[in-house]
Design brief:
This protein is of the alpha/beta class. It folds into 2 domains: 158 residues, TPP-binding domain (Rossmann fold, 3-Layer(aba) Sandwich), CATH 3.40.50; 83 residues, SIR2/SIRT2 'Small Domain'. It has 10 helices and 9 strands. The strands form 2 sheets. The protein has a 6-stranded parallel β-sheet with strand order 3-2-1-7-8-9, sandwiched between helices. Helix 5 runs parallel beside helix 10. The radius of gyration is 19 Å and the shape is elongated. The two termini are 21 Å apart.
């Protein structure tokens, strides 16, 4: 049993917005995405606007209050990832999403790297105190339109990486390390156009991983992929991951 486990491939899964659309969370950059339909909406998640304009913060809190992300539930693609992680195959999830649905589906926290942070927590921009988004939204519901930090009075923001903020270098470093040593790298529901996350696919391929891309639209990394799947994520990803769980690297031909 242990020798079989030792031979199983390390599978890295890079997930983007497309994996969560079936959970009712919009793809912000897609053809019908919010950033295309309402360019002003970007200001609500742009650090310099958020920090300098109280009205932007008030609108941001209203957006969070009305967001589908906190009410969304994992879909069959998330549960397929969790099933693979539970099967004994070594799995690490690198996600561009901030919705926390991989963890809700059952993937252990330690196996998930959130490149862009999480919408399920808030952080103080002054003292760094971190609390739950649910607590902050309770204050908004109670009438605070721009709740401040209860520890120091500083400005609170979602624990996500806003436009104009740098990614957490420790998280990015771990993601890069995984990309360099994995045997299979699956990019799912991501346009692979946002750096530095997109470069992880190329990094994995360059280090010998079998690159599989599951996405409705072409990506810049398609030429490097051993396999490109255009089928709906909700059917394609479970089939792919269940095959990996059943047969290891051979299930994907590598």
């Amino acid at each position: 049993m242990s020798s079989d486990a030792a031979q199983r491939p390390l599978v890295a899964i890079l997930s983007g917005a497309g994996i969560s659309t079936d959970s009712g969370i919009p793809d912000y950059r897609g053809p019908q995405g919010l950033w295309r339909s309402d360019p002003e909406a970007e200001k609500l998640v742009t650090y310099r606007y958020y920090m300098s304009d109280p009205e932007i913060r008030r609108r941001s809190w209203r957006m969070r209050r009305d967001s589908q992300a906190l009410r969304a539930r994992p879909n069959v693609a998330h549960t397929a990832v969790a099933r693979l992680a539970d099967s004994g195959v070594p799995v690490r999830v690198i996600t561009q999403n901030v919705d926390g649905l991989h963890q809700l589906a059952g993937v252990p926290e330690r196996k998930v790297l959130e490149l862009h942070g999480t919408v399920r927590a808030v952080v103080c921009t002054r003292c760094g105190a971190r609390t739950s988004m649910a607590q902050a939204l309770e204050r908004v519901a109670a009438g605070e339109d721009d709740p401040d930090c209860l520890t120091c009075g500083g400005i609170l923001k979602s624990a996500t990486v806003m436009f104009g903020e740098a990614l957490d270098q420790e998280v990015l470093g771990r993601a890069m390390a995984i990309s360099q040593v994995c045997d299979v790298f699956i990019a799912v529901g991501t346009s692979l156009s946002v750096q530095p996350a997109a470069s992880l696919a190329g990094m994995a391929a360059e280090h010998g991983a079998r690159l599989i891309i599951v996405n409705a639209e072409p990506t810049p990394y398609d030429p490097l992929a051993a396999e490109v799947i255009r089928e709906p994520i909700g059917t394609a990803l479970p089939a792919l991951l269940d095959a990996l769980a059943a047969g290891g690297a051979a299930a994907t031909g590598g």
